Amino acid sequence: MPVEVTLSPEVRGHLSVHPIAEMHQFNIDAFITDRFGGVSLWPFDSLNLAGHVGDQDEHVKENRRRVAEAIGVEPDRLITIPQVHGNVVVEVDSTSVEGEGDGLVSARSDVALAMLVADCAPILLVDASSSRFGVVHAGWRGLAGGVLASAIVHFPNPREVHAFVGPCISREGYQIGPEVAAHFSSTPEALYVDAGDRSRLDLRQVIARQLRDLGLIDEHVGQSRQNTDGGEVFFSDRAQRPCGRFALVAKRSS
Predict the structure, then answer these.
(1) Looking at the domain assignment, is residue 209 inside a domain?
(2) Percent residues over pLDDT 90 in the chain
(3) Is residue 221 part of a domain?
């Protein structure tokens, strides 16, 4: 089973961030942002990092600047990409990225990678035997479509890959219909019967099973105990619409 971890907040500049300390041994500085320390107004208060949810552009720009400062890069070196709940993973081999996708992978030490979420799972991947690392946005559509498989092919040996799953919606908070449940019939341990034809889906169980099937070692997979339910600390699309997006941010130490 994956190792469960409670992330503790740390102050960096204007922000409280939640470092993923387990990745320091691989020279990776990574953290989860929360919804505090930014300049956005309700309902995006206050550290919204997404430009597609209706927030003011200047607020998003300043919030991203603060995150870039916290991870130690210039704002134009904080790499994000339009996310579409698909399975495309983009190799970052320069300081700019075009197109869209739901994963970023790089070996560079002069950029920080960021994936934005609000109930979907943010996942960090780190290669213990090389300088490669990546971030993935994993909701039910991405998981059903193979986004993790698309990410793992960027690493030469899955058994050397360490993964961490950040805060996401809990099983108790994630009711789905039969049309979604049908995509996870091969992962029965992640589905729990609810009222009528409804089920509860455990994203963490799906991720753990898929990573295992892709060759990762269970002991190399960690996951946050924190959930997005309620949207009080981390933005939750199910708790409030519209809402902002928080991020998993990672950078390799130079």
Answers:
(1) no
(2) 96
(3) yes
- Segment 227-253, tens digit of pLDDT: 999 999 999 999 999 999 999 999 998
3-state secondary structure of 209: helix
The DSSP string of 61-103 is: HHHHHHHHHHHTS-GGGEE-----SS--EEE--SS---S--SE
Assess contact for 192 and 182: CB atoms under 8 A: no
Question: CATH number, domain at 11?
Answer: 3.60.140.10
Domain count, the chain: 1
AA letter at 220: H
Q: What is the domain extent for residue 10?
A: 6-170+217-252
Region 100-116: mean pLDDT is 97
Spell out where 53-205 has E strands.
78-79, 89-91, 103-106, 112-117, 121-127, 133-138, 161-165, 175-176, 191-193, 199-201
Task: Give yes or no for residue 103 having a pLDDT over 80.
Answer: yes
